[in-house]
Amino acid sequence: MANNTLAVPQAKAAMDQLKYEVAQELGIQLQAYNGNLASRDAGSIGGNITKRLVQIAEQQLSGSAGSFRR
Question: Per its UniProt entry, which superkingdom is the organism in (predicted)?
């Protein structure tokens, strides 16, 4: 079973916005109920969200002090 609990609950609105942006870029229509969404499409959205979050984190880390850089 998946754990969909956010580490920072205040980030829910931003995560939802990111989900809709990624879906739109992929040409996938999201609605209030997405139970009929194909697993392939849902996985594609999730994978792209993960890539985007990693890119954001890398950008933030590269701009911070060198303690995390190698």
Answer: Bacteria
